[in-house]
Amino acid sequence: MDRQARVLVVAIVVSFIAFLDGAVINVALPSLAEELGGGLALQQWAVDAYLLTLGSLILLAGSLSDSYGRLRIIRIGLAGFAVTSVLCAIAPTGLFFVVSRAFQGAAGALLVPSSLALIVATFAPADQGRAIGRWTAWTTGAFLIGPLFGGLLVDLVSWRLVFWINLLPIAFALVLMHRLGRDEPNPDHERIDWLGAALGIVGLAGTVFALIEQGRFGWSSPVVFVPLVVGVLALVLFVLQERRTAQPMLPLTLFAARNFAMGNLATVFIYAAFSLGPFAMTIFLQEFGGFSATMAGLATLPPTIVLVLLGSRFGELSGRFGPRLFMTLGPIIVGVGYLLTLVVDEDFVYWWQFLPGVIVIGVGMAMTVAPLTSAILGAVEPSRAGIGSAVNNAVARIAGLIAIASISVIAGSQLDVDGYRRTALFVAVALVIGGAISWFGIRNPRLAPERAASA
Predict the structure, then answer these.
(1) What is the phi/psi pair of residue 352, to 5°?
(2) Cβ-Cβ contacts under 8 Å for 34 (sequence gap 6 or more)
(3) Could you tell me if 128 and 263 lie in one domain?
(4) Domain boundary pick from 171, 186, 201
(5) Same domain assignment for residues 103 and 148
(6) CB atoms < 10 A from the CB of 435, how many?
(7) Would 161 disulfide with which of 157, 199, 276, 437, CB 3.0-4.6 Å?
(8) What is the pLDDT of residues 414-448, one digit of tens each?
(9) What is the pLDDT of residues 105-162, one digit of tens each?
(10) Together in a domain, 146 and 210
(11) 402 and 315, same structural domain?
């Protein structure tokens, strides 16, 4: 195996680890809450503690990768992911588990941007598109096999095995990386925006804590009100810091490009729905539909299969005709899929109450994902594509984080039939808003003459 092939395999494996852990957790949530207690609040924190540190640190991780070397940051991330996976697996209490998940998200943040940067640094510009295409295809597999694989582990052994199993791909990646040697720090790196990173973490942590815990303590309680105020204030200070610092973690100048700004605004609503919908669906299937973890994984698999089969085709069509139409219709079709699931009742029958909507959801997702990415990255200069991608990735994950934190406000104390209906309706509305933003905000790039003629 030559160096380029080894780098590509390493990049795929380390990203696969981070994505798989995010995809597999939903099916483990009911078993986890049953053993450790905590109900819906623990289930929210099990997902959000990971997304909180992952989303808030992913931009900082990109800066660390550029400054101190991609291989070094990946090794640190893998070691941290291994240790925190063990801590999650042996967690004796819900609090211990949530704290471990937060540290696991921090380790995961070091993996994804560093793996993409490693590809860009290793492959010639002419070969990067193909390499990144392979990276995307393989890492998408994490979302394909994650729910089913996780369900089997939960049903056959324990939810704890979901975390023990992480050690195998981590060991494989470290062995592969041994032949790649070590990279040296960049002596010309820009100053890292530590203050911006700290403000972002405090801002997100405070607001997410308030959203999750308001169901137990109420909005007027100091336990909720104080973190909310501190969080909102920190987010305001974060924006001010990014405006004035010479080397911002989040370059606000990127948002001067219309498609980048509008694309990320659409991302907030679209990916909030993409995170909240499957979260609610998986818990509902297990706790009120009577599904095992494995069957819940299978039941929520069709959208990912459709996305894998049709996603590249819609990407090609978006390249020919522009992303605007697909970014408009795609989210609305996903919303229609969730509206179709509103027929659920106490006598739950998956085949006609859920499956038609689930398939429609998959078609809409396939129509949305690639055009959305191309619209946003196409709006920034090629030299800034890395930070543009990192910003959009962070926006998507933070949107999902806040959406899941808000589920108790939307659904109430449990995801019964009424709670699921309210959540599905909220998801559909968010998707329609995302589609509307795309229609009014996105502008199709002008095609070059030869491309326009071929289209």
Answers:
(1) -115, -15
(2) none
(3) no
(4) 186
(5) yes
(6) 24
(7) 157
(8) 788 999 999 999 999 999 999 999 999 999 987 54
(9) 999 888 877 777 777 677 776 676 567 657 766 776 676 677 778 888 888 889 999 8
(10) no
(11) yes
